[in-house]
Write a sequence for this structure.
């Protein structure tokens, strides 16, 4: 399984022009195999630029990205290679669907990898299974599907490449709460069954808090915070200063603490809040 | 990157060139193009070049942004120059060579002509917002309405196209990245393979363009759009003294070029 | 008086065998801020599109300011009265310069040029985009684009502003900008606002919350009243604010907290108070000693 290492990564757009803009500056971190990482930060904080470096879509202005110790920009072959190992699902991925059938669209990635036909078949079925796309839809045009289904087909198209690292940029953007839950469940299932590293860029603090093992907060192209959800959400004021929201449970906990209730430092899910309040009130322990 | 294409871009500003009536500017560009094609001797070219530089100075457009716009055309310019060098008969530079002095002269003149042609039209689009431009066009073509030419419809289509160029360019960039992430290869293979490789970009782009057109039509109707009838404009076009002066300059340029041509300068 | 009135409205799309709206009765009071919540396919967008005659009912009637929307002769009057903002900001901006886009609707209505200028400037000031009047729309952020779109509609001087999922494609920052802008429009200028959304946190500040489900109105009341029906909301696949959920689950443990508190601060106050007042709480303590705080 794959370990991602980023060393002193910098990226400047339109260098040496009046439009020059530093998007990422001096980012160093290691993401061990199998970790579930949430990337937080507001629009323009550099997180989207950052993830496009992890599969060599963007070339760093300076610094290196290593996959299992190998520089992904070593040569043309390694740049191509990394795209199979690190799958990247863009925001609104349904806008990339183009094939005549759902099956063909999911198969596009594996086909580009030069995989044998029988194996493509197997992979498409497996990927569709992960995201809950029924085989009865395989012959349909992807353009006829509902918004949530299209999104899941597009994600399956990346999963079918069996990437050891799966990166998703705002996978739930624009979906309703039921659609969001479904997509997040799909991603969790893929992670559990494949053991892949999953990195998800999200604005949804409640999802980030509930599901991930580690949160990396970007601000102005730098890593502002990096730690477990407990660690990050025990510093809610810093998050608010960066301009990010905190999970709803955290804001209620903050209000309770201000009123003198003794609550543990890190509260970021409904369950934690409920249990902590019950404990503070002396109920529910029997 | 596709984003670097500056075609049809407008740089807001408040110079005389920006304030001129778009109709004046359209006619000026027409005069300019006629002058450019009338120029034959070096003096004529020098005059048009000087006029272009003067316009750039007046409108505060840097040569750099003109060159940036020229970039996508470089191939065509170079090709024209090469063809002229090799296919013009005359006195060879070195006896026996195919390259002639006349060829070089024609190549340089052709390059100048194309460059100036593009620079002139860029000056128009850089200093005139697409809305003004289409307004100007609509008014200039107004007499054609009597011949049942759908002038308003044509101009509104043009302005919508200009409005969506940056949006579609951005979208193309995004789709390209997404397909690259799925292992699509746009750089290797023969012509046919490369053309096929464009499908994963073109199909989503068309689908999205149709969706956009659909939504845009509903949005326009919601804002009470019902064709050109009874429409008013926020910015009324009016001819000022500066327009008269600009006209005079344009005509002067054309006259001077024709006179120079007559004198074979 | 109600500015929009739905009378037993049915609607089905031509290629669908299922009704998108089945018998909706709804009256919207002038000057109120109404949020419409529902999951995808609940009929909430279809409902919105009936408010300015983009869609016409296949059964029943919709009246806008007393005008039947099916009356083709008065289509412009309906659209002038009810302005509409859509989901994708890019697909509703028609011009390359912000102020020229805002001028589009008044131009269509044949407003005299000087008055268009005034309307455009005032609309841009209202949404806080006046400094950007000369900018190209495609270089603005999502929230800014959506505010330009709102300005483009209010320059038409409508009496109702309907927003069809205006925040679905925006980041949290942009969402806050848009919701703050429309709330201010309602409170300060008395504009009737109908906000269609699937983000429950955007409904908290509304006067009235309508929940749509399967083409019908599933709940209707103040946001507090609607959110307090936690089980109903869960059945509809919708979220409720954490404050409500906390009180709801605490009540299961024997408290008797109100379920209509939607903000963290008052919720914390209520939870702090609850211990001493609630008799049910003492019973739920199971005789254990309270932990020292």
């Amino acid at each position: 399984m794959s370990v991602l290492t980023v060393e002193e990564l910098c990226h400047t757009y339109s260098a040496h022009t009046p439009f020059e803009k530093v998007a990422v500056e001096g980012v160093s971190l290691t993401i061990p195999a199998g970790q579930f990482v949430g990337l937080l930060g507001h629009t323009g904080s550099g997180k989207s630029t950052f993830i496009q470096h992890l599969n060599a879509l963007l070339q760093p202005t300076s610094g290196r990205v290593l996959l299992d110790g190998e520089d992904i920009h070593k040569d043309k072959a390694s740049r191509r290679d990394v795209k199979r190992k690190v799958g990247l699902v863009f925001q609104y991925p349904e806008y990339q669907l183009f094939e005549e059938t759902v099956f063909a669209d999911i198969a596009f990635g594996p086909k580009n990898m030069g995989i044998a036909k029988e194996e493509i078949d197997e992979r498409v079925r497996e990927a569709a299974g992960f995201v809950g796309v029924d085989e009865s839809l395989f012959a349909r045009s992807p353009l006829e599907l509902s918004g949530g289904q299209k999104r899941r087909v597009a994600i399956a198209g990346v999963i079918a490449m069996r990437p050891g690292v799966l990166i998703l940029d705002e996978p739930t953007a624009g979906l309703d709460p039921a659609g969001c839950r479904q997509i997040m469940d799909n991603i969790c299932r893929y992670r559990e069954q494949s053991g892949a590293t999953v990195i998800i860029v999200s604005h949804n603090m409640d999802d980030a808090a509930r599901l991930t093992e580690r949160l990396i907060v970007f601000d102005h192209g730098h890593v502002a915070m990096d730690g477990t959800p407990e660690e990050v959400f025990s510093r809610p004021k810093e998050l608010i200063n960066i301009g990010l929201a905190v999970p709803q449970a955290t804001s209620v906990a903050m209000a309770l603490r201000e009123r003198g209730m003794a609550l543990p430092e890190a509260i970021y899910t409904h369950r934690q809040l409920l249990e902590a309040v019950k404990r503070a009130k002396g109920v529910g322990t029997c | 990157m596709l984003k670097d294409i500056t075609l049809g871009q407008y740089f807001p500003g408040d110079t005389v060139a920006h304030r001129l009536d778009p109709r004046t500017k359209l006619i000026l560009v027409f005069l300019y193009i006629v002058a450019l094609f009338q120029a034959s001797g070096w003096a004529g070219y020098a005059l048009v070049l000087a006029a272009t530089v003067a316009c750039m100075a007046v409108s505060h457009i840097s040569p750099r942004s003109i060159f940036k716009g020229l970039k996508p055309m470089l191939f065509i310019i170079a090709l024209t120059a090469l063809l002229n060098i090799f296919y013009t008969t005359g006195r060879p530079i070195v006896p026996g060579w195919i390259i002639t002095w006349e060829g070089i002269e024609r190549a340089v003149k052709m390059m100048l002509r194309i460059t100036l042609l593009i620079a002139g039209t860029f000056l128009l689009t850089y200093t005139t917002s697409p809305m003004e431009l289409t307004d100007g066009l609509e008014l200039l073509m107004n007499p054609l309405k009597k011949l049942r030419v759908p002038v308003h419809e044509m101009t509104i289509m043009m302005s919508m196209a200009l409005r969506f160029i940056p949006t579609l360019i951005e979208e193309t960039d995004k789709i390209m990245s997404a397909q690259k992430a799925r292992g699509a290869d746009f750089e290797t293979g023969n012509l046919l393979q490369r053309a096929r490789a464009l499908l994963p970009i073109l199909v989503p782009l068309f689908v999205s363009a149709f969706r956009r057109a659909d939504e845009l039509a509903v949005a326009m109707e919601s804002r009470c759009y019902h064709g050109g009838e009874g429409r008013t404009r926020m910015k009324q076009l009016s001819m000022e003294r500066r327009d008269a002066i600009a006209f005079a300059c344009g005509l002067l340029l054309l006259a001077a070029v024709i006179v120079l041509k007559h004198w074979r300068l | 008086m109600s500015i929009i009135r739905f009378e037993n409205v049915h609607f089905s799309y031509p290629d669908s065998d299922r009704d998108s709206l089945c018998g909706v009765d709804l009256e919207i009071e002038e000057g109120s801020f109404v949020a419409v919540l529902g999951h995808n396919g609940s009929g909430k967008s279809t409902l919105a599109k009936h408010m300015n005659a983009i869609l016409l009912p296949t059964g029943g009637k919709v009246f806008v300011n007393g005008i039947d929307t099916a009356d083709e002769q008065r289509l412009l009057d309906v659209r002038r009265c009810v302005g509409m903002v859509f989901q994708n900001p890019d697909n509703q901006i028609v011009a390359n310069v912000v102020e020229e886009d805002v001028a589009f609707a008044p131009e269509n209505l044949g407003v005299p040029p000087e008055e268009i200028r005034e309307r455009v400037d005032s609309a841009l000031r209202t949404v806080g985009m006046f400094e950007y009047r000369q900018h190209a729309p495609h270089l603005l952020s999502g929230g800014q684009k959506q505010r330009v779109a709102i300005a483009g509609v209010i320059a038409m001087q409508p009496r109702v502003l309907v927003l069809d999922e205006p925040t679905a494609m925006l980041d949290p920052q942009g969402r806050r900008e848009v919701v703050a802008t429309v709330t201010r429009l309602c409170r300060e200028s008395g504009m009737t606002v109908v906000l269609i959304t699937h983000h429950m946190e955007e409904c908290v500040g509304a006067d009235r919350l309508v929940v749509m489900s399967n083409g019908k109105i599933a709940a209707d009341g103040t946001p507090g009243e609607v959110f307090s029906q936690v089980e109903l909301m869960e059945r509809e696949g919708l979220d409720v604010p954490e404050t409500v959920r906390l009180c709801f689950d605490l009540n299961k443990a024997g408290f008797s907290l109100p379920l209509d508190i939607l903000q963290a601060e008052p919720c914390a106050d209520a939870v702090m108070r609850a211990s001493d007042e609630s008799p049910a709480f003492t019973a739920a303590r199971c005789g254990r000693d309270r932990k020292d705080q």
About this structure: The CA atoms of residues 52 and 182 of chain B lie 47 Å apart.
